[in-house]
Amino acid sequence: MTEDPPGPTPLDTRLLLEAASTVASDLSLDRVLSNIVGIAGRLLGARYAALGVLNPGSGPRLRTFVHHGVSDDVVATIGELPTGHGLLGLIIDRPAPLRLHDIAAHPASYGFPPHHPPMRSFLGVPIRVRGRVFGNLYLTEKDGSADFTEEDVEVAVALASSAGVAIENAELYEESEHRQRWLAASAEITAGLVGSRDPRSSLEMIAERARATASADFAWIVAGAGPEDLEVHAVSGFAPAMAEVVRAAALSGTLTQRVVRTGRAAVSAHLAGDVRAQLPAVEGWPEIGATVVVPLSTAAGGCGALALAWAADRGVDVDRIDTSLPAGFAEQAALALEVGRGRDDRERVALLEDRDRIARDLHDLVIQRLFAVGLGLQGAARAVVDAEVAARIERAVDDLDATIRDVRRTIFDLASDGEAPDLQSEVEQIVGRAGTTLKLRPTLVLDGPVRSAVPAEVAPDLLAVLAEALSNASRHADATAVEVRLVVDGASVRLEVADDGTGLPVDRHESGLGYMRDRAHRHDGTLTVGSGLGGRGTGLVWTVPLLAGGGGPGP
């Protein structure tokens, strides 16, 4: 008659209950696994116990290795922890329980590294939940130099199942927390972008917030009119020297250009060694390792990409990164940018409508009344006998004419969209600077839609001719008065520069005049030279047509 094997001792029961409660007591994976490994060693009488969590990516086979029974000093002396080769790799490849009398006798067992404690008996079981293998539980050196039993295998399998539940719960919790961080970042960036007025600061805000949320080391954003016109518009996490290198990097053929062209996220396990990167290295700066690039665009338009990267020495496995989270964040950020641009467009339309209304009122009311007053004064002047009074009335009419020209110019300015270079301001600046060399301020008269009607290709030549003419007046004219008049009508733009100086020298060189004449001929225009103010000095008239063939719009 045989006796039934003894049941678990009170210590065994307590440890089993402790193992079960450990799974539900903490969501910190490291603490849970450490507790399970310690309990497994004590429960099964193993001097050493360890647990390895598999790495689903392309890096080392084990991403976590928790051990019990080996002191920290011995671990430091041994060196690197196992990564899943040899006998440990055998259980990874064949996830089934394995009992050995002597580790060293197995063909898959590699030699122990120096200073490794001696180990003979061995038990390894897979950590499996719902058909998925998360890792393996290892136990060595059974008490009393005995071998592990079948009962030990059953207990180890139960503990491994608890460890599997703990790992799965921790991963689900980590994933939930990660997703929650990206959702919070999306909400925060949306609120920030809708209120932002500066496109560059908006992109920098996106890059910085994405980098912080992903716990990445670096982030940058590229944008442009199309895949062939990309530039780096924002960087985050780079030192100033590296930031300048990244901003100036050529983007043709890079991973970011590929993402912009395809509209799909892309990853690189080691960007510093990726031929698609084309980011020059800066001496002393850490290499860029794992990198994720996601599109930063919406169906409404926009063309760009957001890149997140980690330093190579951090060992981040790109296969474990869920690209859908930064991709969703980038899509939300791009949508917020579109909303902000739409708001700016609506405000701009409202502003232009107000300016148009003001311009109509000036034209239909103010100018008409000024015309009426001027006509009335001219009629009154013909009936006045006193010559002095008649002269004063004529001067008043001239002042009204000048006021009407100023009002008309204001109307043209109101009609301008403000996007083109401000030609009027540049003319005023050149005339103002000339005043310092001439020792007098030239008189400036502007007539017509200077800001809006002068073609962009004509404006640089006009400014260059003006600067040359004022320079000549300063060097040669010895003038006491200089007048600049810029007239823009429906047919031409005409620049007149006149002074009351000594006039052109008889042996004058044609270099300066030839320079101005060439700039007129470039636009089918002319340059004429004659007398200046009061029949004295020099007067230049530079004229360019605004009709088809002369640089302006056609009929």
Protein topology:
Layout lengths: L9 H16 L3 H15 L2 E9 L7 E7 L3 H7 L7 H8 L4 E3 L21 E8 L2 E11 L7 H45 L4 H16 L3 E6 L7 E6 L3 H9 L6 H8 L3 E3 L19 E8 L8 E8 L12 H60 L3 H29 L7 H16 L4 E5 L2 H4 L5 H19 L4 E7 L3 E8 L11 H11 L4 E5 L8 E7 L10
Parallel strand pairs: 11-12
Antiparallel strand pairs: 1-2, 1-5, 3-4, 4-5, 6-7, 6-10, 8-9, 9-10, 12-13, 13-15, 14-15
Helix pairs in contact: 1-2, 1-5, 2-5, 5-6, 5-9, 6-9, 9-10, 11-13, 13-14
Describe what you observe in this structure:
The chain is an alpha+beta fold. It has four domains: 10-175, GAF domain (Beta-Lactamase), CATH 3.30.450.40; 195-321, GAF domain (Beta-Lactamase, 2-Layer Sandwich), CATH 3.30.450; 337-415; 421-555, 2-Layer Sandwich (Heat Shock Protein 90). The chain is 47% helix and 18% strand. The protein has helices at residues 10-25, 29-43, 72-78, 86-93, 150-194, 199-214, 240-248, 255-262, 324-383, 387-415, 423-438, 450-453, 459-477, 511-521, and strands at residues 46-54, 62-68, 98-100, 122-129, 132-142, 218-223, 231-236, 266-268, 288-295, 304-311, 443-447, 482-488, 492-499, 526-530, 539-545. The radius of gyration is 41 Å and the shape is elongated. Residues 1-11 and 548-555 have low confidence and may be disordered. Keywords: Kinase, Transferase, Two-component regulatory system. InterPro entries: GAF, GAF-like_dom_sf, HATPase_C_sf, HATPase_dom, Sensor_HK_TwoCompSys, Sig_transdc_His_kin_sub3_dim/P.
